[in-house]
Amino acid sequence: MDFNLGHTLTLRHTHTDTHQPASHFHRTPESGERITFLLANMASHISVFALWFLLVRLSVSGPVMTGTAVDVPSNRSDVVRAIRFAVDTYNKEITTEEYAYKTTSIDSSKVQIVAGLNFILEVNLGLTQCKKAQTTDVENCPLQYNCKKLHCHFEVMDVAWEGLTVLIQRRCYPGQREPHSSFLSL
C-alpha cells in the first residue's frame, strides 16, 4: 500500500516478513531529510496556532468557533499592539495630515481566528500637536485644542508564526462616537 503526500513524502507499507509488524513503514531515502524538516515545520505551525486559539479561548467566555469574531478586552496586549499598528499605518501611509493622529478611546475590540488572528477594532482618533515627521511616540503627544476627530474601523491581520502584520481594512469618518468601553489611552 502506497501513500503519496504530494511530491514531498512517499510512505510504503511493507508486510513481507511475519516477524515485522503490519505498521512498519519505509520512506524513500531521498526524502528523509526533507520529511524531518517539513514535519518539524508543520508541528511548529500547528503548535503556534493551537497556542493562539487557546489564548483567545481563555480570554472570552462561552464556546468559540474558528472564524467567529468574539469580543475581547481592549487592554489586552495583543489588541493594544494591533491598535498601535493600525494607527501608525494610518499616520504613515494613509492620511495626508501634517500632524499625527492618536487613539483617544476604543469603542470595541474583537478577534477572529482565521489563518492567524484578525483584530476587528472600532477606535476614536484625535489630531495631535506633533508633526508626523518629527515624532516616534505619538501616544505622548498632546491633542490639538478643539482637534479634528475621527471614528475608525480597522481590521488588522496578525500571522505571528510568519512575522506578518497587515492592515487589511480601514474606514475613517469625521467625528467621534461615544465610547462603549472606558477611556483608554494607549
UniProtKB/TrEMBL annotation:
GO cellular component, one term: vesicle
Domain Cystatin, residue spans: 64-173
Record field: transmembrane: 35-55
Top-level taxon: Eukaryota
Keyword terms of this UniProt record: Disulfide bond, Membrane, Protease inhibitor, Thiol protease inhibitor, Transmembrane, Transmembrane helix
Molecular function GO terms recorded: cysteine-type endopeptidase inhibitor activity
Acyltransferase listed as a keyword: no
InterPro entries (alphabetical): Cystatin_dom, Cystatin_sf, Prot_inh_cystat_CS
PANTHER family cross-referenced by the UniProt entry: CYSTATIN
Similarity comment: Belongs to the cystatin family.
Record protein name field: Cystatin domain-containing protein
